[in-house]
């Protein structure tokens, strides 16, 4: 079969012919029908998740959906012919966190699909049966690939911040792959959405997907006062979700927060921080929350929200397998917006 192979972390991607993998005990093989080609994978390719040379060469890719075509020994609950989408984390299933359902907090974390094992930039992919989650008939494979991370992560964010219909949620990077779905999930919960991004075109895109979203153009100077004014009660957003990780807008968003506000960060830049004097937390009763991918349950729910149309799975293009290295070059050069999907 054809697959895209990374020679070393931070190295080159090439299209190669490799043997079709057989599922081992507890594993299933999936006929890959759609896979997200995204900045998260680009981060993994660059060694941002793991950089052990022993893990390469490696087939990357984790945000995918397809049809189960073979099952290994001992697999129960997943059958040949099942439509599935993939859970990104390799978790133990036995620790306290896994047992209570907080699988993103697994205490015996085995790493990432497509990093610590072969991924889905391929015609076929093998994964642990417990990582193959049900894709409802109402969802296309493209929608399943988006749900696997692009919608599941926003659901986890909204759970972390306990977003309700009384919230005004400012989304930094609202036109991006994650941001546009955070905006939708927050709106689905009844919150007022303040869409923060750069330029009219990107804001118009968000407003077309999320009716009622209030655009705030971050290219027009410090947005602190405009964010506060755009919130329905004039005292600023109650929740800020940062999908970008740029220090200046983050600081402005922090200062715009309403009393008791929550700032959720989900970027993994190693070298950036938000410098906040401890007194500010006390005086405003503000919270800074980290959000780490999603639980299995949230991925299942993400698939359901796209299947019945509560959330629109937003993508900006498709590619075939040979086109993947070029898509990653464009992601690296900052030439792409939104999400490209592999259609093998
Ligand atoms: Zn665990």
Which oligomerization state do the chains in this entry correspond to? single chain
**Global geometry:** globular
Q: Could you say what the CATH architecture of the largest domain is?
A: Alpha-Beta Complex
Count of separate structural domains? 2
* Bound molecule types: zinc ion
Describe the structure.
This protein has 344 residues and is an alpha/beta fold. The protein folds into two domains: 2-134 and 314-342, Quinone Oxidoreductase, Chain A, domain 1 (Alpha-Beta Complex), CATH 3.90.180; 152-290, NAD(P)-binding Rossmann-like Domain (Rossmann fold, 3-Layer(aba) Sandwich). It contains ten helices and 15 strands. It has helices at 39-45, 96-99, 141-160, 179-188, 200-209, 224-230, 247-256, 278-284, 296-307, 324-332; strands at residues 2-6, 13-17, 27-37, 64-71, 83-86, 124-128, 132-134, 168-172, 192-197, 214-217, 239-242, 262-265, 287-290, 317-319, 340-342. Strands 3, 4, 5, 6, 7, 14 and 15 form a seven-stranded mixed beta sheet that branches. Helix 7 links the parallel strand 11 and strand 12 (262-265). The chain is globular, with a radius of gyration of 20 Å. The protein starts with a strand and ends with a strand. The model has no long low-confidence stretch (mean pLDDT 95). It binds zinc ion. Residues 91-92, 95, 97-98, 106-108 line the site of zinc ion.
């Amino acid at each position: 079969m054809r697959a895209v192979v990374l020679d070393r972390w931070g190295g080159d991607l090439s299209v190669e012919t490799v043997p079709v993998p057989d599922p081992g005990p507890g594993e299933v093989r999936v006929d890959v029908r759609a896979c997200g080609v995204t900045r998260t994978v680009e981060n993994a390719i660059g060694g941002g998740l793991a950089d052990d040379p022993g893990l390469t060469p490696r087939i990357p890719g984790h945000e995918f959906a397809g049809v189960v075509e073979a099952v290994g020994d001992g697999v129960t609950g997943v059958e040949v012919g099942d439509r599935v989408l993939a859970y990104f984390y390799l978790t133990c299933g036995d620790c306290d966190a896994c047992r209570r359902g907080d699988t993103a907090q697994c205490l015996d974390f085995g790493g990432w699909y497509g990093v610590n094992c072969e991924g889905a930039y391929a015609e076929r992919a093998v994964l642990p049966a417990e990582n193959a989650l049900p894709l409802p008939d109402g969802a296309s494979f493209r929608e399943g690939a988006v749900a696997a991370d692009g919608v599941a992560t926003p659901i986890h964010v909204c759970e972390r911040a306990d977003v309700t219909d009384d919230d005004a949620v400012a989304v930094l990077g609202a036109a991006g792959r994650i941001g546009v779905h955070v905006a939708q999930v927050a709106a689905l919960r009844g919150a007022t959405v303040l869409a923060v991004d750069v330029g009219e075109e990107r804001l118009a895109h968000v407003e077309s997907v999320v009716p009622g979203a209030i655009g705030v153009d971050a290219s027009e100077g410090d947005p602190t006062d405009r964010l506060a004014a755009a919130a329905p009660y004039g005292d600023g957003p109650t929740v800020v979700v940062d999908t970008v990780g740029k220090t200046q807008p983050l600081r402005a968003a922090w200062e715009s927060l309403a009393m008791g506000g929550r700032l959720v960060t989900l970027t993994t830049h190693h070298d950036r921080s938000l410098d906040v004097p401890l007194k500010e937390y006390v005086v405003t009763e503000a919270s800074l929350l980290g959000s780490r991918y999603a639980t299995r349950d949230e991925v299942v729910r993400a698939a359901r929200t796209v299947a019945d149309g509560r959330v629109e799975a937003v993508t900006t293009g498709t590619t075939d397998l040979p086109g993947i290295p070029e898509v990653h070059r464009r992601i690296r050069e900052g030439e792409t917006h939104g999400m490209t999907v592999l259609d093998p």
